[in-house]
Automatic annotation (TrEMBL):
<keyword id="KW-0784">Thiamine biosynthesis</keyword>
<dbReference type="InterPro" id="IPR000417">
    <property type="entry name" value="Hyethyz_kinase"/>
</dbReference>
<feature type="binding site">
    <location>
        <position position="187"/>
    </location>
    <ligand>
        <name>substrate</name>
    </ligand>
</feature>
<keyword id="KW-0479">Metal-binding</keyword>
<dbReference type="InterPro" id="IPR029056">
    <property type="entry name" value="Ribokinase-like"/>
</dbReference>
<feature type="binding site">
    <location>
        <position position="115"/>
    </location>
    <ligand>
        <name>ATP</name>
    </ligand>
</feature>
<feature type="binding site">
    <location>
        <position position="160"/>
    </location>
    <ligand>
        <name>ATP</name>
    </ligand>
</feature>
<dbReference type="Pfam" id="PF02110">
    <property type="entry name" value="HK"/>
</dbReference>
<keyword id="KW-0067">ATP-binding</keyword>
<keyword id="KW-0418">Kinase</keyword>
<comment type="similarity">
    <text>Belongs to the Thz kinase family.</text>
</comment>
<comment type="function">
    <text>Catalyzes the phosphorylation of the hydroxyl group of 4-methyl-5-beta-hydroxyethylthiazole (THZ).</text>
</comment>
<protein>
    <recommendedName>
        <fullName>Hydroxyethylthiazole kinase</fullName>
        <ecNumber>2.7.1.50</ecNumber>
    </recommendedName>
</protein>
<dbReference type="GO" id="GO:0004417">
    <property type="term" value="F:hydroxyethylthiazole kinase activity"/>
</dbReference>
<comment type="pathway">
    <text>Cofactor biosynthesis; thiamine diphosphate biosynthesis; 4-methyl-5-(2-phosphoethyl)-thiazole from 5-(2-hydroxyethyl)-4-methylthiazole: step 1/1.</text>
</comment>
<keyword id="KW-0547">Nucleotide-binding</keyword>
<keyword id="KW-0808">Transferase</keyword>
Length: 261
């Protein structure tokens, strides 16, 4: 059984401590794909929720001083019970506050996957990097940055962009599916982090499962773009949910554009 079929058969619980802007879209995206989302943010229930969960997504998009303690406490609980963490350092290069939090988080917490765009991943390695909000510098060398980050943090890196890059233990894959309309809707990258979490089943996830997760998401985006024709981002957001519901492993086998580099 492939990973997508396994997901749809077992409907894994994915805990999402994510940002306020994307909660509804993220939940609907996971439901469309076949996972079971829970937007749980209470440390008081973390042990029970995480014991039952397949993975935990931590997304810092709307980070506040009040939320820092909760994020760290929930993540430490995940480490204690062995629930893998996918960490999305949204806009980490936009402020010193975000840089400091992420540096501290990655010192204290063991994560299974770090997922971000080129500027975000570079900032984690080089704190002098500056970002304009969540935007990424398209001129950066994604493969080199992802490889450096993997060596630095000793964990799997998923770097997103026009081409996505996945690095794990010296193996580097470039994935070239996707749609330019993903950059025109709020929460597309955040939803991808949750989709990745739904495919992760241990603190040392299979790179094949991660490749499948990212490729399926981007193939769904391609199908959504075909469906909307010229109607624009609003229609695309709806069609992306429909495409995630319909996407198949056969489509992955037929349309995935994967290169080991």
């Amino acid at each position: 059984m492939n990973n997508l079929e396994n997901l749809r058969q077992h409907n894994p619980l994915v805990i999402c401590y994510t940002n306020d802007v994307v909660k509804n879209f993220t939940a609907n995206g996971l439901l469309s794909l076949g996972a079971s989302p829970a937007m749980s943010e209470a440390p008081e229930e973390a042990h029970e929720m995480l014991t039952a969960a397949k993975a935990l997504l931590i997304n810092i998009g709307t980070l506040t001083k009040e939320r820092e303690k909760d994020i760290l406490e929930i993540a430490k609980t995940a480490n204690q019970v062995g629930t893998p963490i996918i960490f999305d350092p949204v806009a980490v290069g936009a402020s010193q506050y975000r840089k400091d939090f992420c540096a501290n988080f990655l010192k204290e917490i063991k994560v299974a996957v770090i997922k971000g765009n080129a500027s975000e991943i570079l900032t984690l390695v080089n704190s002098d990097t500056k970002m304009k909000g969540t935007d990424s510098d398209q001129n950066l060398d994604s493969v080199a940055i992802a490889n450096e980050a993997q060596k630095h943090f000793k964990t799997t890196i998923i770097l997103t962009g026009k081409d996505d890059v996945i690095v794990q233990k010296g193996r580097i894959f470039k994935l070239s599916n996707g749609s330019s309309l993903l950059a025109k809707i709020t929460g597309a990258g955040c939803l991808l982090g949750a989709v990745v979490a739904s495919f992760v089943d241990s603190e040392h996830p299979s790179i094949d499962a991660l490749i499948e997760a990212v490729s399926l998401y981007n193939i769904a985006a391609e199908k959504a773009e075909e469906s909307v024709q010229n109607r624009g981002p609003g229609s695309f957001a709806v069609e992306l949910l429909n495409a995630l519901y319909k996407v198949s492993f056969e489509a992955y086998e037929q349309y995935s554009n994967i290169e080991e580099v």
